[in-house]
Amino acid sequence: MSAPHLRNPGEDALRREWGTVGGNDLRIDPAAAERLVKALNADLAGLYILFNQVRKHYWTLEGAEVGPVVEFLEGAADRLAEMTDDLAIRVHALGGVPVNGPMGFRQHTPIGIEAGDVYSLRDSLANDLEGYATLAAQMREHVELAAELGDEATLELVRGHLRTVEVDAHDVEKMLADDTLVRRD
Question: Is residue 55 domain-resident?
Answer without folding.
Answer: yes
